[in-house]
Design a protein that fits this description.
single chain; mainly beta; Porin
């Protein structure tokens, strides 16, 4: 009897194994079949890239920019029935030679002179070779012809410290995008969806503190293409960290001491550094021209956020303040001739800070008052027909309201009354996807101490897109 049961057990195990192999084989075959890139996915790639190129100026000088708005999140496919997919690694290897005439990165000194932020007060020239703007990413695409998924995980090497012997990877992007017909949903860390037009200069800061509002933020964004020309979006987004380690910022949270303990029933004030705050709520409506307006774009953006600011001990706002942060902005691109194009944006807002690459510029760090600011930039790009080169020239400004900064004494090296920048850029492909670029920047900064300084920065760069 026991021998018979053992025989039946062996047979049942064999049958189960055969059933498992039979059911797994089609899925495995589907995976192999789906692994290679398909023309349909190439078409999706083109559809994704096109709006970004239309919003840009001049020739496409960095393939990384369109790629960052494409997607790849699923490193191993699970859903295979009726869908086709691919996984694509991509990246950029870059070396920047940088000379700074006057400590041109005082707003992020931990980065040495890796990129320009303002004309510093220190009259010390510096030079470096900087590999940190190298990028590596993985993109995945999947579609069944009607629905599509794209996602991206991407890193660069701009860490938090200037430690040349240890430059760890830093997360730039990590999001998934689902598209069904004319509507898409993006969830994860992507470029700021409002005020999304950027200048094309080589410098890593892309005019941060100089008129361009940008960041890479965790977000949930819904886009809808109303027709061939009009696209709208709504978004909820927030910078992934709370208060920066600057200027005595410490939030407080009242706590009640349990009865039975010393001081039971009384209230203590416990400090913490990452207050729970509302995210930004925003929207953007964009018009893309066709026919005689081919290559033109006009967009309007709005954003709003309410939060309780952190108190600063020994200041005029020890208990914090209720802050209403908002912005209104316009972006525009228009070809002036076949080879010459204008692009730019202008925005006005209050308490615009880390969500828009304006660290410590949202509040008066002495009085706690929210700061209103007018910012903007403009660029001309020229791509001659007889040459693969691209020439750029641009100007930007970040002008906080001087009345809002009145009485600021605790952040004389951090907050400015005016910050302006001019740049001239030349980019030329050497061979295939290998590029050379040269750039000159001049920065003018007036600090809250009323001191004015000017500084120059020179960049020579080579990079290979793959």
């Amino acid at each position: 009897m026991l021998k018979r049961l053992g025989m039946w057990g062996g047979i049942s195990r064999t049958v189960l194994a055969a059933v498992f192999m039979a059911s797994a084989a089609p899925a495995f075959a589907q995976e192999q079949k789906d692994g290679a890139p398909k023309p349909m996915l190439e078409e999706i790639h083109k559809q994704e890239v096109a709006p970004q190129q239309e919003e840009g100026a001049g020739q496409l000088i960095r393939k990384e920019e369109p790629a960052t708005h494409l997607c790849a999140g699923c490193l191993s496919a699970i859903y295979t029935e009726g869908s086709k997919g691919s996984i694509t690694p991509y990246g950029r290897i870059e070396l920047d030679a940088i000379y700074s005439s006057r400590n041109n990165n005082p707003l992020d000194p931990g980065q040495f002179n890796g990129y320009a932020t303002a004309a510093g007060k220190g009259n010390n020239a510096t030079a470096t070779l900087n590999p940190r703007y190298s990028v590596f990413g993985i993109r995945a695409d999947r579609t069944d012809g009607k629905h599509s998924l794209t996602g991206v995980v991407e890193v660069d090497f701009y860490g938090q410290t200037d430690n040349a012997g240890n430059i760890p990877p830093r997360l730039r992007l990590a999001f998934v995008k689902y598209t069904n017909d004319k509507t898409s949903l993006t969830a994860g860390m992507d470029w700021t969806p409002i005020m999304s037009l950027h200048p094309d200069l080589i410098d890593f800061s892309i005019m941060g503190y100089g008129g361009n509002l940008w960041q890479r933020l965790p977000q949930i964004t819904v886009r809808h293409q109303f027709n061939q020309n009009i696209e709208g979006l709504v978004t909820v987004m927030r910078f992934e960290r709370g208060l920066s380690a600057c200027c005595g910022n410490t939030q407080t949270r009242p706590t009640t001491i349990p009865s039975g303990q010393v001081g039971g029933g009384s209230t203590n004030v416990a400090p913490f550094n990452d207050p729970v705050q509302n995210p930004y709520y925003g929207g953007r409506l964009a018009y893309t021209g066709t026919g005689n307006l081919q290559g033109s774009m006009l967009a309007a953006s709005v954003g709003y956020r309410y939060y309780r600011s952190a108190p600063i001990s020994g200041s005029a706002f020890q208990s914090g303040r209720d802050i209403n942060s908002y912005l209104f902005g316009i972006e525009a691109v228009h070809p002036l001739t076949k080879n010459l194009k204008f692009s730019g944006e202008v925005a006005y807002g209050q308490a615009m800070g880390v969500e828009f690459f304006r660290f410590n510029q949202e509040l008066n760090l002495t009085t706690g008052k929210p700061i209103r600011a007018l910012v903007g930039w403009g660029q001309l790009s020229y791509a001659p027909s007889h040459s693969p080169s691209t020439f750029l020239v641009g100007y930007g400004f970040d002008n906080p309201n001087k009345n809002d900064l009145s009485g600021s004494t605790s952040a004389a090296n951090i907050q400015y009354l005016s910050n302006q920048r001019m740049y001239a850029t030349y980019v030329r492909p050497i061979w295939a996807d290998f590029y050379f670029g040269a750039e000159f920047q001049n920065l003018w900064t007036q600090w809250t101490t009323m001191e004015r300084f000017s500084g120059q920065q020179y960049n020579m760069s080579v990079w290979y897109n793959f």
